[in-house]
Amino acid sequence: MNQSSEENSQTQTPKKVLVIGGGIAGLTAAWELTRLNLDVELVERSSFLGGHAIQFCCKAADECQKCGACSVEKRLLEVIQEPRIKVCLRSELKGMNRNSRFSYTLSRQPLHIDPKKCTNCGLCFEKCPAPGAIFRGYSKNNVPLYAINEGKCLYFRDRSCTLCQDLCSEKAIDLDQEQGQISDEADAIVVASGFQAFDPVDKPRYGYGINKNLITALDLERMLREQGDVVRPSDNKAPKKIAFIQCVGSRDHKLGHGFCSQVCCAYAMRMAEAIRHRHPETKVSIFYMDIQNCGKNFSKFYKRCKDSIRFVRFMPGDIFQGDQDQLILFYGDEKDGHAVREPFDLVVLSVGIMPGSSNAGLADMLKLDLDEHGFFSFADPLDSTSTSQPGIFLAGTAQGPKDIADSMAQAGQAARRVGQYLGICFGNSTTY
Amino acid sequence: MDTTVLVIGGGWNGIKVSFELACAGYRIVLIESGTSIGGQAPYDHLASTSKQELSILLDRVKEDEGIEVLVSTRPVSLTGVPGDFHIRLEQHGQILEKATGAVVVALEAERVSMAEAYRLSPGENVLNQSQFEHVLASTKERGLPGGDGSKDVLFLVGLQQEGSPLVMERAMRSALEIQASEGCQATVLVGNVKLAEDGLESLYKQSREKGVLYFKLKGFPRIRQNGSNLRVGFFDGVLHGDVELTPDLLVVEEAIRPHPEIRDLARVLGVDTDAEGFFQADNVHYLPVRSNREGIYVMGPARRPCNLSHGWTDAQNAVLAVCHLLREGKRLVPKEKAKIHRGKCTICLTCFRVCPHGAIHWDNRAVISSAACQGCGICAGECPMDAIQLVDYRDDQMEAQILASTEKGVDGPQIIAFCCQNSAYEAGQMARLFGSSLPEGLQIIKVPCAGKVDVEYILTAFEAGADGVLVLACHKDNCKSQQGNTFAEWRVEDAGRMLEEIGMEKERLHFATIASNMSVEFVRITREMEDKLKELGPNRIKKQAAG
Ligand SMILES: Cc1cc2nc3c(=O)[nH]c(=O)nc-3n(C[C@H](O)[C@H](O)[C@H](O)COP(=O)(O)OP(=O)(O)OC[C@H]3O[C@@H](n4cnc5c(N)ncnc54)[C@H](O)[C@@H]3O)c2cc1C
Ligand code: SF4
Ligand code: SF4
Fold first, then answer.
1. Cβ contacts (< 8 Å) between A246 and chain B: which residues?
2. Which of B227, B245, B366, B539 has its CA 20 to 30 A from that of A299?
């Protein structure tokens, strides 16, 4: 098995891998692949790398709570500093043909901001008259740091404004840039297209979108990251009583979601602890079915949480509007079952990990299978990166719910499997 | 550099990683303290194709000439540096010496019956999970033990331990199997149903549809064991009342504990364990398979309870790490990050003791291994003789930077913030880039780890005229060098006492922790410092100097 390592010696043109999705799984796969002397084309549909996890807050209380959010920051920095990774933002796979390699076509929406020229001065962001037309990435490591939302930009509505383009002293903005196509070839593919968070509009009983103080956990992650604190959206005041409702969209057989999202108990407890660290007087209740484990020494962590958070084993149904923008939850008392009515200042829906919106399209183009829930299914039960197509591997939540740490580990595995598929072998086989 | 890799643990994880490393071109020494490799079946449920895969794998590992298998063998000591370790092994009272470039620890976990914790004495009608599986497999036709009446089987899961999906899955599978037998009823008493693993929610649903009963308990049930007579009572939160069951058979869960050899091995290898006794400190920087020492990797159930699929994910990550470290065996000389001045060193052993990465060894004098050193500078900060300098952060460079940063006159208070490059420095850069309003007199000085910040630097900053000094580190448990933040905090306390002695307000010096992604926190900490300094007025040393 110790074949010659010469076939991959640096003198030959390095092989290239297409990585689909620039979340933590795609970033990690890309980074590990370059360490195996492979070139990478990293394709990201949105305007920024980092996926969901780059939007998350640090959940440290007295100490780090091992949520992993900062690992994403670090990995993104490593990726943008790695010249072997070519990043294609706002791009999507449009077609794939298998010959001796994989020839593929990407469609590319215009960036309008030239990452090479932009100095991140932020003038466009500051001066743009149309709210939301220019938006900023979550991390300082997003390149470019700003992006233009064509749906909100006045130029794309009626050509009435070119302010940003005129103001930019670096001439980095080109509003007329057109959409393009890229055709190229790769030797292997990693599918890391991630997930979508459950949209609570699909559970109308909660009335998400009606009361401002009913938010999703993703909203809370972003709020804690951007403002460093939690407030009630209705009045920007600190909430005194917060409820988390677990399993929103997950473990819901009525919706056909017969799976656990594996991360929601962890993030809810960690965020609750982080909030209580800042505001020890805040009362937090978590409504749950079963609490799932996370990280090392979970029983100790859970015990600590139980000391400061109230856990109620009940899934509240409808959520009602109370006075002063409060929200009313009804639940059964655990002792005698009688109905309890309790108001909260802020209710957080712990939304789950749902299959990505592009899974079906990608599966079709790449001839991969999806499982009963719509995640990519793996071929070998002992290798969750494997697919029915040689040379195509899975990483991260595209394959099924998992946290940041597991997404990174799986991405490492996928990179290694690509290396194996391409015959990469380092060891000094000439000595024996 | 040696391209042999030592793999410790001949279970299914050790076998897998040995095979994969051999595929990647490395020579392997696989050691196992027991008498054979692959002896124990994996903990988790496997498809029959996977079982076949295992036996093929075992054959290939046994046949591979590049893999030397040593059974009844334990490591005794490890010396050397990453790429060139020397390990002494003990086999039947004999010492074997091996050279190895890297070490992968792939010990399996241990399963321990929890009958005692449940205050049950094992017997015909009280079995632990493994025993019950054995009975299921062997006596399917003959019926269950305990005579004809043995039809109601009660499983106890997650009531005396938090449990895990691994434990849960086994109970659910056995319950399903029993439920399918004619006239049998399976009931599960459980704390939290642990389903955070692919496919377990479906299994849970399937088992309930087949008639398995689940009761979720908040406390511990009343169990009375009187010979063949079993009574289990508890409060049920759904029925809101007491329930009493008289099962024919009780099946008690097992705990998954760290391998008993881990404690000794951790000492031999000089690597950290966690609070439960598994390998790897609870620190996200080490994920997935790094230990605190370069060149020593920990994987699978050696670092946390996990199923085989996750263990093998680790195995591939260990291969990546080894490939990166050893490459083809001819690596460029690693960049030197820290230097010991021989003339100044009094051989006090401080650096050797404090280095969190085991990068300093003893060869009549202290020697830093460039391959192992992470450049944190904790040793430099602790060395009482100032005999250690970091190449990129020499004391004279640091001093020059401190002096330069107070030169510019500013309106507001002058604040010098020593920022760890892994956290605070990044957060500060982000705050700047996002145009957040930071104190005008804020000067950021980057350090490789807060553990590099010397008391000297803090005092120099005040002497140079800073009105306030911040030392900003990673959160506890988030330091890449494990204790850099703790050292920094101690030094800030020391420096604070010194300031008080010379009559300076100790509030001018502040230690705080922060993560790289929290620019808002950076703004808050620095602004709070500014506000405090505005109240306190200018630094008196500076005033004296000016007057
Ligand atoms: C509210 C919430 C909080 C969480 N908190 C934590 C936490 O604290 N700790 C933790 O460990 N985990 C947490 N998680 C889980 C965490 O979000 C995931 O583990 C992680 O983000 C998965 O990364 P990924 O790369 O697989 O997917 P994603 O983050 O979804 O990234 C996928 C990327 O691929 C892109 N993409 C999608 N389709 C295509 C396509 N067709 N072509 C090109 N690009 C495409 C997307 O735009 C996206 O950038 C949380 C999850 C939620 C919902
Ligand atoms: S709580 Fe999360 S983001 Fe904060 S330091 Fe710990 S792992 Fe990093
Ligand atoms: S700089 Fe850090 S890693 Fe290097 S020898 Fe000193 S203490 Fe060890």
1. none
2. B245
Phi, psi of B111 (to 5 degrees): -105, 130
Last residue of a domain, one of B374, B390, B406: B390
Estimate to the nearest angstrom the gap between the alpha carbon of A78 and the chain centroid.
18
Inter-chain residue contact A66 with B24, CB threshold 8 Å: no
CB pair distance less than 8 Å for A413 and B316: yes
Instruction: Identify whether residues B182 and B90 lie together within a single domain.
Output: no
How many angstroms separate the CA atoms of B96 and B220, rounded? 51
The first and second tokens of residue A233, run together, are: 């959206």
Same domain? B484 vs B402: yes
Residue B332 falls inside a structural domain = no
Mark whether B79 and B172 lie in a shared domain: no
Contacts of A286 in chain B (CB under 8 A): none
| Alpha-carbon gap, residue A19 to A49, rounded angstroms | 12
The domains of chain A, with CATH numbers, are 13-109+179-194+356-421 (3.50.50.60), 198-352 (3.50.50.60)
Residue ranges of A 57-76 with Cβ closer than 8 A to chain B:
57-58, 60, 62-64, 66, 68-74
Within-domain flag for B368: yes
> Which residues, numbered 200 to 259 in chain A, qualify as contacts with chain B under a Cβ-Cβ cut-off of 8 Å?
225-228, 251, 253, 258-259
Tell me how many domains chain B contains.
Answer: 4
| Cross-chain residue pair B328–A426, CB shorter than 8 Å | yes
| Same-domain check for residues B165 and B218 | yes
Q: Domain range for residue B368?
A: 338-390
As for the ipTM of the complex, it is: 0.96
Cβ count near B535 (within 10 Å): 10
Q: Based on the domain organization, do B125 and B146 belong to the same domain?
A: yes
- List, run by run, the mean pLDDT of 10-residue segments along chain B (547 residues): 94 98 96 94 86 95 97 97 95 97 97 94 93 84 54 95 95 94 93 97 97 95 91 91 94 97 97 97 97 97 96 98 88 83 93 95 90 95 95 96 87 95 98 96 97 96 96 97 96 96 95 97 98 94 59
Would the CB of A44 count as within 6 Å of ligand 1? yes
Helices and strands counted in chain B (H then E): 15, 26
Q: Are residues B49 and B167 in the same domain?
A: no
Out of B276, B298, B326, a domain closes at B326
Q: For the segment B248-297, what is each residue's pLDDT rounded down to a tens digit? A: 999 999 999 999 999 999 999 999 999 999 999 999 999 999 999 999 99
Tell me the average pLDDT across A193-200: 98
User: Which chain A residues are Cβ-neighbours of B28 within 8 angstroms?
Assistant: none
Looking at the domain assignment, is residue B333 inside a domain?
A: no
Do B131 and B195 lie in one domain? The reply is: yes
CATH of the domain at B362: 3.30.70.20
Which residues in chain B have Cβ-Cβ distances shorter than 8 Å to A298?
A: 162
- Ligand 3 near B3 CB (within 6 A): no
A75 lines ligand 1 (CB under 6 A): no
Q: Say whether pLDDT at A400 is over 80.
A: yes
In angstroms, what CA-CA distances link B43 with A109, B169, B236, B423? 49, 10, 31, 39
Burial of A135 by CB count in 10 Å (0-12 exposed, 13-18 middle, 19+ buried)?
middle
Q: Measured in angstroms, how far is the CA atom of residue B372 from the centroid of ligand 3? A: 8
A355 C-beta closer than 6 A to ligand 1:
no
pTM for the full predicted model: 0.96
In this prediction, residues A95-117 reach a mean pLDDT of 96
Which amino acid makes up residue A171? Answer: K
